[in-house]
Amino acid sequence: MGSKNRKKRKSKEVMERLIEELKNNGGVVIDACRAVGVGKTTFYRWQKEDEEFRKKVEEAVELGNLELIDLGVKTLKQKIEEGDLTATIFVLKTLGKRRGFTERVELEKKDVEEFSSTKIQIYLPKKGGGE
C-alpha cells in the first residue's frame, strides 16, 4: 500500500509540473508532456479521471494562450513598425473592422432578421427609354 501512495504522490507532482509547463509554453499539451516525460495518453487519462486536474489544465492553457496572443500582438506590432504590408493588412482586416476596413459586409443575426422582414421594390426603366 505504501507503493500506491508514493505513486499517487509522484503523479500529483508530475501533474503540477505539467500545469506549470502549460502556463509557460503557450498551452501546448504535447510540449508540456515531453518536458515532464509523460505520454499524452496518460495526460488525457488523468484529465478524464481527475476533475481538479482538468480544471487546472483549462486555466493553465487559457493563461498560456493569453501569453502567446500577447507575443503575437507584439510581433505583429513590430512588423507593422518595420513597414510590413502583410502585417498591416492583417491588422486592418481584423482589428480595423469597426472602422470600416473590411472586404465584405458581415451581418449579425438580428440584422438578417430585420432585413428579411423588409420589402424591397425595384423599379426598372421601360423598354424604349421611357420611365
The ordered H/E elements are HHHHHH
**Apparent shape:** elongated
Secondary structure tally, helices: 6
- Estimate nothing, just give the exact number of structural domains: 2
Enumerate the spans where pLDDT stays under 50 for 5 or more consecutive residues: none
Percent of residues in beta strands: under 5%
Give the CA-CA distance, first to last residue. 96 Å
Mean pLDDT: 83
Helix/strand/pairing category: mainly alpha
Helix content: 55-70%
Q: What Rg, in angstroms, do the CA atoms define?
A: 27 Å
Query: Major sheet, described briefly?
Result: none
Number of strands: 0
Textual characterization of the structure:
With 131 residues, this protein is mainly α. It has 2 domains: 1-73, no CATH class; 83-120, no CATH class. Helix content is 69%, strand content 0%. It is built from 6 helices and no strands. It has helices spanning 2-24, 29-36, 40-49, 51-81, 85-94, 109-116. The mean pLDDT is 83.
